[in-house]
Write a structure and sequence with these properties.
The complex is a heterodimer of chains A (247) and B (321). In chain A, 29% of the residues lie in helices and 31% in strands. Chain A is α/β, with parallel strands linked by helices and 247 residues long. Chain A has a single domain, classed as Rossmann fold. In chain A, helix 2 crosses helix 5 and helix 3 crosses helix 4. Chain A starts with a strand and ends with a helix. Chain B is α/β, with parallel strands linked by helices. Chain B folds into 2 domains: 171 residues, Rossmann fold, CATH 3.40.50; 123 residues, Rossmann fold (3-Layer(aba) Sandwich). In chain B, helix 2 packs across helix 3 and helix 4 packs parallel to helix 8. Chain B is globular and about 60 Å long. The chains are: A alpha/beta (247), B alpha/beta (321). Chains A and B meet through helix 1, helix 3, helix 4, strand 9 and strand 10 of A and helix 2, helix 3, strand 7, strand 8 and strand 9 of B. Strand 14 of chain A pairs antiparallel with strand 9 of chain B, so a sheet runs across the interface.
């Protein structure tokens, strides 16, 4: 069993969102970088659980980014991957990233490819589907539960107002969200071990991006809260009905 | 040249978010001086001519029982064939569960740039630039699509739908339907509840409610308002409520017309998932709760005292005894 987990670097969930260079770039000053939570908490930990059940399983991690991605990928290795591949390229758009990952995956002959459901910065939710199409593999998006059978997987995915249970033969691509696994904290043994795990750096393949970011905007500030006295909650209902007209 | 809209259906009904996508696609067609056509896959789907009310002139159907379940690979191939056959220059999806599964595949197949989570019509005066949510709703990016064919997934509840009375021509699209590799063995839906991702009103509870036994304060109000229920991350993590109700940066991002937050302090990660809601109401006993800064209306007070009075007032408003 070979599992590939796609890892992305994102700003910390509490990072201040601001833009530089005439609102064309994310302002990175003072930003703390983390593993994209969906990649770490769900995709990676699920892969680790599968390896715990089958010690012969191998987990490879892949990330697209420059050398400043290394601390992130080392942390992921500390949690539990066996080796990592960094494709040495600045990210362009999701098609560019997916094409780089697909090129690695094609050679690696993976049984499972896991991604997080989206990154918390660009919220594209696109990499898994694109990789699957590039490799002509089935794709289950927004999975909340994953159980491995002999040569297939039983996967529960979220749909409007409920869930769907799917049975799919391997190999396949799965995007993972809440429910798949529980967040883990790397232990000292893992952190020490991660230092000696292989981190292979490979050069990107030539791919033309489909999209480019022209500019960023921040949402307009709220006008301020209108407080209603706690003794008179009926007034809130009146305001919502007559002024905001939302109920 | 035309605009193609994918209409997502479940149990024979077109989803609400797909009607929004239809109206959005029709508005792009108007803007670009072309027509909006739609495609719907599956059998036994209700009145498709009425999709004309949203500005769509033609609906292509592929009537096949095998398509009543979505397989992203099979669906992508059919939609790609349809888009090519009609010379579609823009393909529109809802950014819902199925849209997120199909649109990225279609992007690769058609070599078409994808913007997912659009919140406004594209700027087409020079180039083709689409505004989308980034940083989980804390900002917007204006993304240029530089390919001949463009794909957009529209965030639910982001585009105001205007309808008029019109009839769409319904026509069969001769598609090759491949065997699905994904076998759907079960679907499980909570009957009678409003899906969170499509809800116009969402009532949400946090740790301030002290325990799952007090959730009637949330569910009673939700029922009266025809609203979906949601919760903060800690509430889902400790198992008071199911995971799929978690809204926020690492849960579901939503943008209802009304978000009613009870006993939620408003951590930055929670705000990121809900701050695009058109009206936000916060009930919290802590006047320093950060959520008040993001709210439109608020009550500083004890939810256990305030909420029963609000529920009574809403009952009176709705004429419920």
């Amino acid at each position: 069993m070979k599992i590939l987990v796609c890892i992305s670097k994102t700003p910390d969930t509490t990072a201040k969102i601001a833009f530089a260079d005439n609102n064309t770039k994310f302002a990175v000053d003072g930003v703390v970088w983390i593993i994209n939570p969906f990649d770490e908490w769900y995709a990676l930990v699920k892969a680790i659980e599968l390896k715990e059940a089958d010690p012969a399983a191998v987990i490879h991690l892949v990330t697209v980014g420059l050398a400043d991605n290394d601390p992130i990928i080392r942390k992921a290795l500390a949690l539990g991957g066996d080796e990592a591949i960094r494709i040495n390229a600045d990210s362009h758009d999701s098609y560019y990233i997916a094409s780089q990952i697909a090129a690695i995956a094609k050679d690696g002959k993976y049984d499972l490819i896991f991604t997080g459901k989206e990154t918390i910065d660009y919220n594209g939710s696109s990499i898994g589907g694109m990789v699957a199409e590039l490799l002509d593999l089935p794709f289950i998006s927004l999975a909340t539960k994953f159980t491995l059978e002999a040569t297939s997987a039983i996967i529960i995915r979220e749909i409007e107002g409920g869930e769907e249970t799917d049975n799919v033969a391997l190999p396949l691509v799965v995007s993972c969200q809440k429910g798949m696994a529980e967040q883990r904290i790397p232990n000292m043994k893992g952190i020490m071990g991660a230092r000696s795990k292989p981190l292979k750096v490979v050069e990107p393949t030539a791919v033309e991006a489909f999209t480019s970011i022209a500019s960023f905007d921040l949402p307009p500030a709220k006008a301020g809260v209108k407080l209603v006295n706690a003794d008179n909650p009926e007034e809130l209902v009146r305001l919502l009905h007559e002024v905001a007209k939302v109920i | 040249m035309s605009i193609l809209i994918f209409l997502d259906q479940a149990d024979g009904h077109i989803k609400k978010s797909s009607f929004e996508a239809a109206a959005y696609g029709a508005a792009i067609a108007l803007q670009m001086g072309t027509t909006a056509e739609a495609i719907v896959l599956g059998n036994g789907i209700d009145d498709l001519a009425a999709v004309g009310n949203y500005g769509v002139t033609k609906v292509h159907t592929v009537k096949n029982d095998a398509l009543n379940h979505m397989d992203a690979q099979v669906f992508t191939k059919i939609i790609a064939d349809a888009a090519t056959a009609m010379g579609a220059t823009v393909v529109v999806f809802s950014n819902n569960f199925n849209g997120k599964a199909i649109a990225p595949r279609l992007s690769v197949r058609l070599k078409a740039g994808l913007v997912s989570g659009a919140v406004a019509l594209p700027e087409t005066a020079a180039g083709f630039v689409v505004k989308k949510n980034v940083f989980s709703g804390k900002a917007f990016a204006n993304v240029a699509i530089n390919t001949a064919i463009k794909i957009i997934t529209l965030n639910p509840n982001s585009f105001s739908v205007i309808t008029s009375v019109a009839t769409a021509e319904v026509t069969e699209f001769a598609a090759t339907v491949d065997a699905a590799k994904v076998k759907v063995t079960n679907t499980n839906k909570t009957i009678g509840e409003v899906p969170l991702s499509e809800a116009k009103i969402v009532v949400s509870g946090g740790r301030g409610l002290k325990g799952p036994e007090n959730w009637s304060l949330v569910t009673d109000l939700a029922k009266l308002l025809g609203a979906a229920t949601a919760c903060s991350r800690p509430v889902a993590d400790i198992g008071w409520r199911p995971h799929h109700e978690h809204v926020g940066q690492t849960g579901l991002a939503i943008a209802p017309n009304l978000y009613f937050a009870i006993g939620i302090s408003g951590a930055i990660q929670h705000l990121a998932g809900v701050n695009r809601s058109k009206t936000i109401v916060v009930i919290n006993k802590d006047p320093e709760a950060p959520f008040f800064k993001a709210a439109d209306y608020g009550i500083v007070g004890d939810a256990f005292e305030v909420m029963p009075k609000i529920i009574d007032a809403v009952k009176k408003l709705k004429g419920v005894a």
